[in-house]
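Collaborator request, handled under Task 6.
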Amino acid sequence: MRQAQKTNLGRALATLLIGLIACQSVPESTTKSIEAQGLPGEGVKISSAHSNWIEEHFQTAIVNLGLEKLGYQIKEPKELDYPAIHLAVANGDLDYTPVHGDSAHEQFFQNSGGEEKLQKVGVLISSAVQGYQIDKKTADKYNITNLEQFKKPEIAKLFDFDRDGKANLTGCNPGWGCQLVIEHHIDAYGLRDTFEQDTGQYTALLADTMTRYQQGEPVLFYAYNPHWISSVLIPGKDVVWLEVPFTSVPEFQGKLTEKDTLIEGKNLGFAKSRYRIIANNKFLAANPVAKRWFELVQISVEDMNAESLRIKDGEDSPEDIRRHAEEWVEQNQQLWDRWLEEAKQAAS
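Structure tokens returned to the collaborator:
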């Protein structure tokens, strides 16, 4: 009898204790941990990088937002230049970067170890176009259609802003793939005596170019799309693309033909390019979900142009870029959610 009473009393005390525990509030950190259970990236920290080209901050933010939703812990992206970005990924100092240009950065990819250390994953931005542009007013007045015409001193003089007898091209940052291609073109097309590339911070150089255009002066510049310049100086209306006499690219870009550099019937001299994600091979092997995410996520050229224009108009702080990325996700929510679900399936 006494044994039964002890048993019943023990059960009652245990029930009371369980009730008290259940009524207690769960710490917020514990709640978050519970919510995160089952996410494939939980406990994994990811490091990335982009260059100082602000548009690249935006595309990096979008990729990282998806990784966050998959449970990964994202370190603050580093800002590096080319080819330091590729070397850092190859050496494992970074896990990935979303700013690899297929043709422009191929030399950086190979010199950093190539496929033994790195892998190109997915196509983040397709159909990137690049080449030489001049203002339409000057092009029409002097019938300028081809870069080869700059061999003529009278044509070069129209764009000679520093009065050294050579046309001044608004060019690229030193060491960038486009800077190397332009220097190759100057020699390949016999322009060294009448044509020169102004290098430096492309954004600052382009701002000076815009000022000259607004003042009614001729302008000659390297153009890349996606970029805000294509939304402000519209090809066919405000500016025109110049053709090149024939296809010639640096050896590191491989053997390209006119087919590779032909855009809408014009030979622009630069290979059609794509932005791709490159990642460290060991990281990809250990994180199949992240790899699948890299394969799926895409941003349209039109969306990149729109973002570039917002940046140009002053919305360029880190907080602005993060907000822009979150707004982009909301505008593409259905597609975004499908990508996330498909990426999670790679965990199995």
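The cover message to the collaborator said: "The longest strand covers residues 118-135. The chain has two domains: 41-125+274-347, 128-267. Please let us know whether this matches your experimental observations."
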